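Hi F.,

I've been meaning to write this up properly since the lab meeting, where we talked about keeping a consistent format for the predictions we share between groups. The idea is simple: the sequence comes first, exactly as it goes in, then the structure tokens exactly as they come out, then a line or two of notes. No screenshots and no reformatting. I'm using this chain as the first example so we have something concrete to point to.
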Amino acid sequence: MSVLETRKRQLDLARLHEECEFNYQRLHRVVPEALALGARFDLHYRDQPDSGIRLEVIEVTKYTSTVLIVADRAGPHWLPKIEIKVRVYRDAKMAEVVEWCSDRTIPWALSENKGMQSRDEKLQWNMFLSELLVFGLRSGLVGADA
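Output, unedited:
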């Protein structure tokens, strides 16, 4: 991989924005009422109502909302609970991952690999959110307000 390809992989802003726009559309399909503080939506398997994905609006400002997504018992028993905070920019129609696992804020650009972070970690977590939402939309998860 050349230096130019490495740099492009690290700072591909257009790809990140595109992923954030797609995540906004997917999230809007799952939680159309992302404006109401405290709005909560659970997605669970038809045959396993105690497992799945919980989405909750935890903050609302004039132009943004913050949604907490918790995937608890959504996969194999050895998979730890996944918590992702997503900032929804209603005016720009974008949704991006801003925090994961309760204590890891994701910086835009990493100058060095602290804590075993990848230089394109923000893009990777937004792609993970994309996969999580697509999984929820495609695999028979049903919604139930909690």
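Notes:
Residues 3-144 form one domain.
DSSP finds three helices and seven strands in the chain.

If this format works for you, I'll send the rest the same way.

G.
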